[in-house]
Design goal:
CATH superfamily of one domain: P-loop containing nucleotide triphosphate hydrolases
CATH class of one domain: Alpha Beta
CATH architecture of one domain: 3-Layer(aba) Sandwich
Number of helices: 28
CATH topology of one domain: Rossmann fold
Strand content: 15-25%
Strand order of the largest sheet: 12-22-23-24-20-25-26
Largest sheet: 7 strands, mixed
Radius of gyration: 35 Å
Length: about 850
């Protein structure tokens, strides 16, 4: 890499900056284009310009075979990269530029190279279109052909939060919006991505609808369950417009648009996804360690396709009881058939990433090795079909009935494609002998060429009497006869001199020229013919892209189901009972992630819509309150994914939302203190929770003064527990022991605490066992001792605590004040 390339890789640029890689032979020449934002502008900027103009002088050269690695680094640095190719050869005597075009623009959301992508994670590009009351969202992954869209209502004052919550399901690599979108800076802050803005006209309903119909080659979109007035149309059409401009129309892998309703899945906001560490850990030093997330525990998939689908299941738990039970039954069948599952996993391991292979082949970026990987994958289909025949549950049986063994495509690739095709498409060696008669003739000429040359060399030696005569080849002169100076007098009359060297002379003959032309033309024709045959094979595969994509989705589902079965079997999970009731019952539940790291104490949970609506959990830090609450939320979520759960027994009434308020920190970017962040999250929960939600709240009110915090925690607890307000199933952890008597005053509130073993020397041991009743104290000084606080500080703290407890009437005053007032329920009923 040149120093200039190193310089650009070391400088983080804005997304508005674009680098141009112009292919010249075996090299890409690097240029810098300032703030070019669309392929139309790039075409205007490049077409017709003379190579070598001062303002277009190349910054450095990039070897063609190594370009992918450099492109990946440039994309990571914030550039977009335009690939420009020469589209014609210069004509004899031609002056001025030859035709060249931008063939593709690579952006973070349009990367297709395997080495630049994470296998088990989709590379989504999102597009947002906003009206006064609704927001439409479209998401595409061009590496798999996935294309989906939805819309959702916006409530006044919470527009940004709702948009960010919906986007957080996708972990976008790139964001698109209109140039007049009002929340660009907030999106940049939330996802550390600068949105790419597009002209407002590209979001017009009529233009977007026409764009989609043109792309899918349909008269309407009713086949995708969309009408001309569907709100999703604007975002989906604008996204296709952007992809067509950057990919130059190479989007044949996007064969369908799936509209989905976000309210058909369990709703979780961005904070909840982060707090529960579903797919990414909160700890930055563990970002690359999946075992510390729920996905890391559940992901025992054997294919990249299955890993991506399982991730989407974790992000989008189901609400439909029948669909959940269908998935659970399929998991149970594979869990009980351990030997059959092991055989299935062996076959799945030999399946390559069919989705991304198809995207590369459809986009004309695929090569012989991609096709060979597809052939190897198709070879496993009969074995997968055989395993599915032994299943009986509805979902597994449905997959068996729908299974397409793709035998015709596999047979075609087996007959046509070489066993180990080269990476390049222009070097030959792609096609098997025996597949094409014309190619076989050319291969025969190449194979016999050496023999013919050897025979001609022997014949010329015999005829001339020059024993040292040799026939040789180089790229400048082609084939020639070389004779030493000592034998130049013996050269026959028919020899034509080509070159004189210090110690030898080089000649040719009419016979050698004809033979050379035959051999060289055969080599060139073979390479071109093989490329044409390969293009024919590629087109045949693209013609069957919907069949292949369907089978990729089926195999993904099969892989994800067997993964959940593998986890259930290995980790002693139980099959949860799923129903439409309002009870969550878990016997001996465990935290799915933490039990993988260390020994874990199991605990029971019983929440319902009646006397057990709200569990008020008290006790010291380190006792296990937060872990227990996350555990209940994760078990509920796992059950609605269709997974077995870490417990001895579980019965889960489907919840519509999960809210968590666990921990907070200053939001410096927006100028919000820790307490403000906490109250904002609390407000969101109180406004959106329903009776069927699950709420997890930890230490509400701790960010302000004691009385303020106690007052807020008390009132929030009453509001949630009140059936006329929310009445949701809730886990409420607190250090405010003043709240313990609320069990006797509020219906549905029950006290729980974690057991502590306290020795005579004032040391404590946390037993991590949840029991009925409230904790009598917080053991803060004992926890400080375990943390290593100096003894002199601990001694002083103990004296201060004793003095405060003896002299201050705070607790009694607080109880008298609060219990002397009407409850929230009484106030609200008036």
């Amino acid at each position: 890499m040149t120093a200039m390339m190193t310089q650009y890789l070391n400088i983080k640029k804005d997304n508005d900056d674009c680098l141009l890689l112009y292919r010249l032979g075996d090299f890409y020449e690097l240029f810098f284009e300032d703030a070019l934002t669309a392929s139309r502008e790039l075409d205007i900027a490049l077409t017709g310009r003379n190579y070598g103009e001062a303002e277009k002088a190349p910054m450095c050269g990039v070897p063609y075979h190594a370009a992918d690695g450099y492109i990946a680094q440039l994309i990571e640095k914030g550039y977009r990269v335009a690939l420009c190719e020469q589209m014609e050869s210069p004509k004899p005597g031609q002056k001025g530029p030859v035709k060249r075009e931008v063939v593709r623009i690579i952006t973070p959301g349009t990367i297709t190279d395997f080495n630049m992508l994470e296998e088990g994670k989709n590379n989504y590009i999102l597009c947002l279109a906003m009206s006064k009351k609704f927001c439409a969202l479209a998401a595409a992954d061009i590496t798999t052909g996935g294309f989906t869209a939805t819309h959702f209502p916006l409530e006044e004052g919470e527009e940004v939060k709702r948009i960010i919550d919906e986007m957080s399901r996708f972990y976008p690599a790139e964001i698109l919006c209109s140039e007049d979108f009002p929340y660009i800076s907030q999106l940049n802050q939330a996802f550390s991505l600068k949105p790419v803005t597009m002209p407002s006209w590209s979001f017009s309903q009529s233009f977007a609808y026409k764009t989609l119909c043109t792309h899918f080659r349909t008269m309407h979109l009713e086949g995708f369950n969309l009408s001309e007035s569907s709100k999703e149309i604007t975002a989906a059409g604008a996204l296709i417009t952007y992809l067509q401009e950057t990919q130059k129309g190479a989007l044949s892998q996007i064969t369908a648009l799936k509209a989905f309703a976000s309210d058909k899945f369990l709703i979780m906001d961005k904070n909840t996804r982060q707090n529960l560490e579903l797919c990414e850990t909160l700890r930055p030093w563990r970002k690359q360690n999946k075992k510390h997330t729920l996905l890391g525990v559940l992901d025992h998939t054997c294919t990249a396709m299955g890993a991506r689908l399982l991730r989407s299941w974790v992000e989008l738990p189901l609400l439909d009881v029948a669909a959940i039970e269908q998935r659970l039954n399929a998991v149970e069948e594979w869990q009980t058939k351990s030997f059959l599952r092991a055989e299935l996993r062996d076959s799945l391991r030999d399946i390559h990433d069919i989705e991304r292979l198809m995207a590369r082949l459809a986009g004309a970026n695929g090569n012989g090795r991609d096709m060979a990987a597809l052939r190897a994958s198709l070879a496993q289909f009969p074995y997968l079909k055989e395993k599915l025949r032994e299943t009986k549950t509805s979902l597994n049986n449905s997959m068996n009935r729908s299974f397409d063994d793709m035998k015709d495509i596999h047979d075609l690739l087996t007959r046509a494609l070489a066993e180990e095709p080269p990476h390049s498409l222009r070097e030959g060696g792609l096609i098997k002998a025996g597949y094409n008669e014309d190619l076989d003739k050319l291969l025969s000429i190449k194979a016999n060429g050496e023999k013919w040359l050897s025979e001609l060399e022997a014949s010329e030696r015999e005829a001339s009497g020059i024993k040292s005569l040799k026939i040789r080849y180089n790229r400048v002169f082609g084939y020639y006869i070389e004779v030493t100076k000592a034998n130049s007098a013996s050269v026959p009359e028919g020899y034509i001199r080509k070159q004189t060297l210090a110690n030898s002379e080089r000649y040719t003959t009419e016979e050698l020229d004809k033979l050379a032309e035959t051999i060289l033309n055969a080599d060139e024709k073979q390479t071109e013919l093989e490329y044409q045959i390969f293009e024919g094979l590629r087109q045949e595969i693209v013609n069957n892209i919907e069949r292949l994509q369907f089978m990729a989705s089926l195999i993904s589902a099969l892989d994800s189901i067997q993964s959940l079965a593998e986890v259930a079997d290995n980790n002693r999970y139980c099959k949860p009972m799923i129903n439409d009731g309002e009870t969550i019952y878990i016997r001996s539940g465990r935290h799915p992630v933490l039990e993988q790291i260390s020994a874990f104490v199991a605990n029971d949970t019983h929440l319902d819509a009646g006397d057990r609506r709200l569990a008020l959990i008290t006790g010291p830090n380190m006792a296990g309150k937060s872990t227990y609450m996350r555990q209940v939320a994760l078990i509920t979520l796992m059950a609605q994914i269709g997974s077995f759960v870490p417990a001895e027994e579980a019965s889960i009434g489907v919840v519509d939302r999960i809210f968590t308020r666990i921990g907070a920190s200053d939001d410096l970017a927006s100028g919000q203190s820790t307490f403000m962040v906490e109250m904002t999250e609390v407000a969101h929960i109180l406004h959106h929770a329903t009776r069927r939600s699950l709420i997890v709240m930890d230490e509400i009110g701790r960010g302000t003064s004691t009385y303020d915090g106690l007052s807020i925690a008390w009132s929030v607890l009453e509001y949630i527990a009140d059936e006329n307000c929310i009445g949701a199933k809730t886990l409420f952890a607190t250090h405010y022991h003043e709240l313990i008597p609320l069990e006797d005053r509020l219906n549905g509130v029950r006290n729980y605490c974690f057991t502590i073993s306290e020795s005579e020397d004032d040391n404590v041991q946390f037993l991590r066992k949840l029991i009925r009743g409230g904790a009598d104290k917080s053991y803060g000084i004992q926890v400080a001792r375990l943390a290593g606080v100096p003894q002199v500080v601990l001694t002083r703290a103990k004296k201060v605590l004793d003095s405060l407890e003896r002299e201050s009437p705070d607790v009694e005053v607080a109880r008298a004040v609060f219990f002397g007032e009407e409850s929230y329920e009484q106030q609200s009923l008036e």
